[in-house]
Fold this protein.
Amino acid sequence: MRLFSIAVLALFCFLATIYAQAPTIHFREIGREAGLTRVPFSSMNQHYVVETISGGVALFDCDNDGKLDILVVNDATIEQAKSGGIRMVTLYHQGENLKFTDITKEAGLTHKGWGMGIAVADYDNDGLPDIYVTGYGGNVLYHNLGNCKFEDVTEKAGVAGGGFSAGAAWADYDRDGHLDLFVSRYVHTDLNHLPTAENPSKNFFHKGLPVENPWTMDGETDFLFHSRGDGTFEEVSKKAGVDDPAGRFGLGVVWGRLRQSRMAKPPGGQ
């Protein structure tokens, strides 16, 4: 026991010495000098749920040059959304010495709307990362053509979705070698029929303030898009039992695998 205690003490002293010699990590804000200057379009006076939830960032190498590029979601305002929205994302390409350039337009990422979230993956197995952007009123799928050039294939792929889409994540849930897509949705709201202080609804006042209260609103169902393996998808959430008919409030998405108990028998009792 004494030898064990001495060994533990020696190990502790060794680790303490290593950590004491480790260099201190410091961070410095370099956004402006790096060229990351995009400012969100969020309204300063937020009265509605759709105004309070937005944002999302993806770090990925859009042209496989070994340097991470930055994709940022753009939110909007009620007025901008009613007039067609704005570009849902901004893409910054990394050059030399941590300098970034806005290449959104040249990259073909021009779909307009109200951005909420991003999910990046190579859904067609061509070695290039593709982009799925969620948003209020509709989502968009961008297929990577190479060299940071993208094509909007939303309608062709059948993944436009709709409503208040918030989070999304890719995974091959049936292990057929093709990535599938799950999209969570939040609450049901209509920008053309929003309550006002003069014409309030049951969910407009929260603690006496003229603010929309999500807890009194109806939640929206979710989407599960199953890949057919040819670049198109089938919406199978109801068939798979994950459409959330109760309309719970969906924001983020995480895929995982439930570990089967060792005592449990597989289908068929074998």
In short: The CA atoms of residues 222 and 242 lie 7 Å apart. Residues 261-270 have pLDDT under 50 and may be disordered. The helical segments are 2-21, 31-34, 49-52, 78-82, 104-107, 154-157, 237-240.
